[in-house]
Amino acid sequence: MSAFNGLGVILENRYYGESYPYETSTTDQLAYLTTEQTIADNAYFATNAIFPGIQGNLSAPSTPWILYGGSLAGAQTAFSIKEYGDVLYGGIASSAVIQAVLAYPQWYAPIQKYAPQDCVTSINNIIDKFDALVAANKTEAIQQFKGLFGLEALTDNRDFAMTIAFPLGGPMNYPTNTWQELNWNSTYGSQDFFEFCSNVTNQDAPKNITSVDTILSQYSNGEPWTKLGNYAEYVKQALLPLCDGSPIDSTSCFGTQNQTFYADTTNSAARSYLYSTCTEQGAYQVAPPTGPSLISRVLQVDYTQQWCEWAFPDGKYNSIPNSPDPSYYNHYGGFNISADRLAFIDGDIDVWKDLCYHSDNASARYSTDLHPEYLIAGAGHHWDSFGIRDVDAEPQFIREAHRWEIRTVRKWLNNFSHWKEQ
Predict the structure, then answer these.
(1) Which residues contact 218 (CB under 8 A, 6 or more apart)?
(2) Phi then psi for 224, rounded to 5 degrees?
(3) How many Å apart are CA 62 and CA 78, to the nearest integer?
(4) Alpha carbons 34 and 17: distance in angstroms, whole number
(5) What angle do CA 127, 130, 132 make, to 5 degrees?
(6) Which one of the listed residues 131, 159, 350, 384 is annotated catalytic?
(7) Fewer CB atoms inside 10 A, N or C side of the chain?
(8) Is-contact 154 254, C-beta < 8 A?
(9) Helix-then-strand count for the chain, H and E
(10) How far apart are CA 142 and CA 167, in angstroms?
(11) Are the C-beta atoms of residues 64 and 416 closer than 8 Å to each other?
């Protein structure tokens, strides 16, 4: 903004913060929480906004409005420019999840590929052995395995599997910071993920911890469960205290099998986000169908879908679909979305990348002034959203991404008068 003497406006999404239309969020009351309505808000605000103390008319389209958004807001930026390009002059969509799918096992792919490989291999192997117990219905061994983590009270294997996946990113929920929360800027990022892996791979753990690796060897043909003791100890030390004395199997701790809890209609960001997930976005985090897995294969679509059904029973006027309907998102173009002055910028180690413009499932990308794109090397989830005033002092790949964004907007603004005349 400072490069162009611009005015910055942060527009709050409907059904978040102070922008709830109702006192509660029943299924009927959430009917207006849709992508279509949200992007219409962007266009309406731009054409009607009045700024106290600012002389002149700054409304669109007579004034160039350029949107920026990251993650969900990135998708909404892209859809807004696609739908209202006659009003909104341009937009930069960062880590924009523009493709809707039901199951999204690729969330864990960057961790498999880029995380410390001794940590990854250890977790993969432990999960393989646990899943073998589940497949063989070894109930006694499963209970013993849970007990090593201090989680024997979790009666649902999926709740247990999600809990030990929290440091990685459990489906929808994770009370600790994960790979997604890594950031080049220490003010906003967290090193929790690397602390977790350092604990899992600790070569100097005491014997009372390393001896845990062989407790279940009778169920794996004598093979040790390498680093199980370290993994279990981390969970006990980092996660169990979060319950603050609440029963392990309760929703105040790590249990999820409570329909009443999910049916609470109190306004909250978590409830709004879950509603959008259940109706339009999908992208349920699940174990992959083949190959190694960092999370147990008991974590599949049905686990997340049950929360949708509990949280949003049919109302009088509105009901959620049996599973998310991707057409609400994908009719804007999905991976093929395109609009003049719509820029896409992504990070190549982002857990959401395969739902973004630079997905491995998308066609080859070529940048132009009207359709710019940029993939930041070694960057995670909308890392360009974070900066410092001295751009030149930023790490090189972030610095160059920000310089690219400035150049891109400058090119657009240089052509605004011509666009306005058309």
Answers:
(1) none
(2) -70, 155
(3) 21
(4) 16
(5) 110
(6) 350
(7) C
(8) yes
(9) 15, 6
(10) 21
(11) yes
Active site residue 369: no
Q: Which amino acid is at 81?
A: I
Which residue's entry shows tokens 């969970």?
Answer: 235
At position 312, the amino acid (one-letter code) is: F
Q: What is the pLDDT along the chain (422 residues), one digit of tens a residue?
A: 778 889 999 999 999 999 999 999 999 999 999 999 999 999 999 999 999 988 888 999 999 999 999 999 999 999 999 999 999 999 999 999 999 999 999 999 999 999 999 999 999 999 999 999 999 999 999 999 999 999 999 999 999 999 999 999 988 888 899 999 999 999 999 999 999 999 999 999 999 999 999 999 999 999 999 999 999 999 999 999 999 999 999 999 999 999 999 999 999 999 999 999 999 999 999 999 999 999 999 999 999 999 999 999 999 999 999 999 999 999 999 999 999 999 999 999 999 999 999 999 999 999 999 999 999 999 999 999 999 989 999 999 999 999 999 999 999 999 999 998 87
For 93, list phi and psi in degrees, rounded to 5: -105, 110
Token readout for 208 is 């009372």
DSSP for 248-268, please give it. Answer: TTSTTTT----HHHHT--B--
For residue 69, list its beta bridge partners. Answer: 93
Q: What is the dihedral of CA 358, 181, 391, 113, to 10 degrees?
A: -50
Of residues 71, 95, 293, 385, which has the active-site annotation?
71
- CA distances to 59, 245, 246 from 242, rounded to whole Å, are 48, 8, 9
Angle of CA points 231, 245, 140, to nearest 5°: 50
Collapse the DSSP code of 271 into the 3-class scheme (helix H, G, I; strand E, B; otherwise coil) and give the result: helix
Q: Please say if 71 is a catalytic residue.
A: yes
